[in-house]
Amino acid sequence: MSRSPSKTLHSRPPIERMYRIHEIIRTVKISPASEIRYPNCTSIASELEVSTKTILRDIEFMKDRLELPLEYDSARYGYYYTEPVNHFPTVQITEGELLALLVAQKSLEQYRGTPFEHPLQLAFEKLSGGLQDQISVSWADLSSAISFRSSGATITNLELFKNLSPALLHRKVIQFEYKKLNATGYEKRRVHPYHLACISGQWYLFAFDLNRQEIRRFVLPRMRKLEVTGEKFEKPKGFSIQKHLAQSFGVFEGKENHEVIIRFDSFASALVKERHWHPTQVIRELTHDRIEIRMTLNSLFEIEPWILSWGEHAQVIQPPELIQKVKGSIQKMKKSYSI
Length: 339
Known about the structure:
The chain is α+β, with helices and mostly antiparallel strands.
């Protein structure tokens, strides 16, 4: 049995698709004696991997809204331009809309291969189809304007996503086997899934562990044999992932708050000021182009490697336990490189 085309075809932003249709129609060269057909909805849809209804809507938009001289030739069973069209019309959007579209389109890459890709792509197309007319830009040049690139992106388990997504949406209890970092084997977990987050290129599930009676985080690549039970649960009304991680430098949370102070030299100061690292951060200017950053964290686990990544350009001022952690790591590193 063949699959429904709507489930297997790929989509692209409407204006980009229309530009491709324009190029297909514009580049067809047919002499009066030629028997070659013009491009039609079926042939274009096959090339662009979308439905014929989509192509028909695009062509109607191109004729009515973009005022392109498109006509259908019943003798050649396809569309053609009644006069030369060398340039695709500009699309009218605001500066803010342009930036939002570029970021949205490129940021979809991190969801490629997950169950979120298709609905997000559809949502993006709906948003890009309702633009207001204010300034002119050429869509053909946008694809190279902005991009996202991250190292160490997580390896996506599509089957896991497929089972986990409905459990999150419909609040179903799940059970799975989990292997903690540095553990030798897997152990069974039974949880209430609260939230799925992609943080620094890694996917995490935040869930209430029924055995440990507290919220735990689970790294998706360390999960296996996930099952969705028929048992439902009520998600606490006060739960918010933003509140839960408010005092965390990443995904690790602790029980006690620490007032962290780090100083940076003139080389690192400019780089540190260019980014927002934590909701509680306060940056204070020191002498000689040096700065001091303060933040309140309830876990020192992730701030330590961040400090070490700055090398000699960063110095921990407090708390004392963080100073000792950094010193200890430096000593271990020295031993690793000793001859």
